[in-house]
């Protein structure tokens, strides 16, 4: 019996020791947790990682649009040039006298209706003899005639001009000087079609070579008449440079518009003359 009680006592004592040990363990843990600074703890959120997908074609559109390698642009230019080269000449009774290329607002062509002997200024979208001016290039105009494109090119003699040429004739007397009002010039330049209706200008040829522009059908009291020009005059040069096409006349317009001093060399009754213009 004494041995039995001793065993029970030992088990009871062991239980007490275990309980006390567990309580001591939790006390130590609580003390440590109280000293932890919870405000300094940073939390991180891991985003959901989706499966990698191949970008769509729309993703690459900005790169294609910028064409950083220039390949598409070169190819398109070559194809465009070939397409224009293969266009059939227009069968319309038209003559291209000159073109001025630049931005859309400042791009136009001077076209003559041969049967009517009427010259006018045309821009993209304008209509002439039932055709629509589709595009204006240097020395060329693409016309939309019914369901197909046709090309109108500048006269061969004018197109041969590849660089500026200068008069090499003997010196000419200073000639007359005409004072031109800047306001009158500005007023005339506002309507180039009306300006072109005041005179007929055509390339003039001597021995098969262009040697200037002939002036005919000059209206009395017109802007050109005020500039001292007369019917039958052949305008041969401007500031010493040879004039061969109406494109050169358009450069004269520009000089007048800017109010620059201009000197025209003309042939009148087989005599060369100089007309100087000054602006006031």
Oligomerization category of the chains in this entry:
single chain
Helix run count: 8
Structural class of the helices, strands and pairings? alpha+beta
Give the terminus-to-terminus CA distance. 145 Å
Please describe the biggest sheet, giving its number of strands, its sense, and whether it closes into a barrel.
Answer: 7 strands, mixed
Query: What best-fitting shape do the alpha-carbon axes yield?
Result: rod-shaped
| Order of SSEs | HHHEEEEEEEEHEHHEEHEEHEE
CATH-defined fold name of the largest domain: Pdz3 Domain
Classified by CATH, the class of the largest domain is: Mainly Beta
Question: Explain this structure to me?
Answer:
By secondary structure, the chain is of the alpha+beta class. It folds into 2 domains: 57-158, SH3 type barrels; 162-279, Pdz3 Domain. Helices cover 33% and strands 30% of the residues. The protein has 8 helices and 15 strands. Strands 9, 10, 11, 12, 13, 14 and 15 form a 7-stranded mixed sheet that branches. A hairpin with a 2-residue loop joins strand 6 and strand 7 (140-145). The termini are far apart.
List the helices and strands and how they pair.
Layout: H1 2-34, H2 57-66, H3 71-85, E1 88-89, E2 94-100, E3 108-113, E4 118-122, E5 127-128, E6 131-137, E7 140-145, E8 148-153, H4 156-159, E9 176-180, H5 182-189, H6 192-196, E10 200-206, E11 209-216, H7 223-226, E12 234-238, E13 241-242, H8 246-258, E14 262-268, E15 271-279
Parallel strand pairs: 1-8, 9-15
Antiparallel strand pairs: 2-3, 3-4, 5-6, 6-7, 7-8, 10-11, 11-12, 12-13, 12-14, 14-15
Could you name the key traits of this structure?
single chain; alpha+beta; SH3 type barrels; Pdz3 Domain; seven-stranded mixed beta sheet; five-stranded mixed beta sheet; 8 helices; about 35% helix
């Amino acid at each position: 019996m004494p041995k039995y009680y001793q065993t029970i006592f030992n088990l009871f004592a062991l239980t007490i020791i275990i309980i006390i040990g567990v309580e001591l363990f939790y006390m130590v843990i609580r003390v440590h947790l109280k000293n932890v600074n919870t405000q300094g703890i940073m939390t991180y959120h891991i985003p959901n990682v989706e499966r990698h997908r191949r970008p769509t074609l729309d993703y690459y559109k900005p790169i294609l649009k910028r064409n950083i390698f220039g390949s598409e642009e070169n190819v398109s230019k070559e194809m465009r040039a070939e397409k224009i080269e293969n266009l059939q000449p227009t069968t319309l009774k038209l003559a291209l006298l000159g073109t001025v290329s630049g931005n859309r607002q400042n791009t136009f062509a001077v076209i003559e209706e041969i049967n009517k002997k009427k010259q006018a200024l045309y821009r993209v979208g304008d209509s002439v003899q039932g055709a629509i001016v589709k595009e204006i290039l240097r020395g060329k105009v693409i016309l939309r005639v019914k369901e197909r494109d046709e090309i109108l090119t500048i006269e061969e003699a004018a197109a041969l001009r590849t660089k500026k040429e200068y008069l090499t004739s003997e010196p000419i007397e200073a000639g007359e000087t005409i004072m031109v009002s800047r306001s009158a010039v500005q007023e005339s330049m506002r309507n180039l079609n009306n300006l072109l209706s005041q005179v007929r200008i055509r390339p003039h040829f001597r021995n098969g070579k262009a040697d200037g522009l002939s002036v005919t059908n000059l209206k009395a009291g017109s802007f050109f008449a005020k500039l001292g020009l007369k019917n039958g005059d052949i305008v041969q040069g401007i500031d010493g440079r040879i004039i061969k096409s109406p494109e050169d006349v358009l450069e004269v317009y520009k000089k007048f518009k800017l109010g620059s001093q201009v000197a025209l060399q003309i042939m009148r009754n087989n005599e060369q003359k100089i007309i100087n213009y000054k602006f006031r």
